[in-house]
Amino acid sequence: MKFTILFAIFLIFQGNKISNSFTINCDYRTRSLLVIGSVYSCDTTNIPSSSGITVTNVNGTHLSGKNNNDVTCVYINGKRTLLFVPRNFSNFFPNIKAILIWNTTIETLFGDEFDEFPKLEYFDFYYSNLTTISSKLFEKTPKMVCVWFGSNMIERVGHDLFTPLNVTQLKIVSFHNNRCINRYVNNGNTTAIISLINELREKCPFDDEFPSTTTTTSLTTTTIKNLFCTNQSIEDLVCDLKDSMIEVQENLMTKDEKIDEIREDMNQSNKIIEEIQSESREKIENIESRMQWLEEELLRLTTHPCACK
Ligand SMILES: *[C@@H]1O[C@H](CO)[C@@H](O)[C@H](O)[C@H]1NC(C)=O
Ligand SMILES: *[C@@H]1O[C@H](CO)[C@@H](O)[C@H](O)[C@H]1NC(C)=O
Ligand SMILES: *[C@@H]1O[C@H](CO)[C@@H](O)[C@H](O)[C@H]1NC(C)=O
Ligand SMILES: *[C@@H]1O[C@H](CO)[C@@H](O)[C@H](O)[C@H]1NC(C)=O
Ligand SMILES: *[C@@H]1O[C@H](CO)[C@@H](O)[C@H](O)[C@H]1NC(C)=O
Ligand SMILES: *[C@@H]1O[C@H](CO)[C@@H](O)[C@H](O)[C@H]1NC(C)=O
Ligand SMILES: *[C@@H]1O[C@H](CO)[C@@H](O)[C@H](O)[C@H]1NC(C)=O
Ligand SMILES: *[C@@H]1O[C@H](CO)[C@@H](O)[C@H](O)[C@H]1NC(C)=O
Fold it and tell me: Where does the signal peptide begin and end (predicted)?
């Protein structure tokens, strides 16, 4: 067991440096969303794939008169590299009611990712490689009016995903362009929404027994990352290990830097030596040619028939 965990952690660290925490750079703007209308949004498109799980700072210039409490929307474009849902956004933006997460490589939503946003109404998880959604996803967010999962690869949807929600309040439900279903309702037709939910239960059955669906041998790196990134105790362990990894990496880095410095110094000295050599070569050549001239002149003076008397 320990070995498996270590191996998994090794996979996590392979090739990239995962840090404990990170700063989100917000581009603040007003957006107009279907159903809920105007929101003040932190747009972010630059979350590095190597960044951590927990947002520890937000950065950016608010529109005039606005502050963090006015932020009601977060839009993240994962640029096809984001592996996890960032946590602790709500520590900075306590009034989030809309979340748009596009274009990630997240495959599984384990259920507690959005628990920190009790005011959530609008959820748009468009265009990722999502295959599996836990029943628990909306357990702490009962006010949902828009649930958008269009253009993913969904195969399994927790049987009770919609149980905590009030279907008469739902206006948009999209499971358009997925593997087990291709259907959406965007006009708040409750009958149609109920029928869509029934189709999900029939065609995308999933009884939520994490993580038995992902056996050790078939765990992909992404799944492993998602798994770790959603479990606080494992996250802590990973963070501890990561700290020591970073230390090692930093040591290696300073060594590399030193070697580079020495190389540069050597290049510099080589260059100086070359310059001195070429300079002195010129001087020697100059002297040599003058010597030759003098010799010739001497010869001319002493041997020429018209030499000075
Ligand atoms: C904060 O944002 C500014 C402007 O976008 C950027 O120059 C700066 O590097 C950011 N700071 C951090 C800590 O990311
Ligand atoms: C997804 O990210 C890729 C890579 O950055 C980008 O080329 C593409 O336009 C993005 N697609 C959407 C729908 O945001
Ligand atoms: C994330 O937020 C929770 C709740 O506010 C807090 O207990 C936790 O320490 C935060 N994590 C970090 C790394 O700041
Ligand atoms: C996501 O899905 C696309 C389309 O099938 C695929 O090309 C890509 O490799 C997948 N990305 C990951 C990280 O699984
Ligand atoms: C569901 O929402 C409708 C209004 O859209 C409301 O009348 C009804 O009481 C709600 N049901 C529950 C169980 O909250
Ligand atoms: C609502 O959806 C049902 C089932 O798809 C359909 O039969 C009905 O005509 C729709 N009602 C309206 C007002 O569009
Ligand atoms: C998180 O990991 C710990 C340690 O492996 C485990 O005991 C716990 O059940 C896990 N929690 C969840 C929610 O998976
Ligand atoms: C040193 O000089 C060589 C040849 O001019 C060059 O290829 C190399 O990149 C230089 N190294 C450094 C550290 O400047």
Answer: 1-21
Q: What contacts 14, CB < 8 A, 6 or more positions away?
A: 221
The tokens 């399994």 sit on which residue?
Answer: 156
Domain holding 293, by residue range, is 231-309
Torsion sign over Cα 297, 299, 305, 308: positive
CA 165 – ligand 5 centroid, Å? 10
Beta bridge pairs of residue 23: 57
223 and 111 in a common domain: yes
Assess whether 65 and 175 both reside in one domain. yes
Domain match, 44 and 61 both: yes
CA dihedral 87, 92, 97, 102 (to 10 degrees): -50
Prediction pTM value: 0.65
Domain boundary among 178, 212, 228: 228
| Nearest ligand to the C-alpha atom of residue 169 | 5
Query: Which of helix, strand or coil describes residue 22?
Result: strand
pLDDT tens for 136-192 read 999 999 999 999 999 999 999 999 999 999 999 999 999 999 999 999 999 999 999
Q: Could you tell me which of 300, 186, 204, 246 has the C-alpha nearest to residue 19?
A: 246
Q: pLDDT tens, 27-57?
A: 999 999 999 999 999 999 878 766 667 888 9
Q: Which of 48, 49, 141, 53 is nearest to 99 (CA)?
A: 141
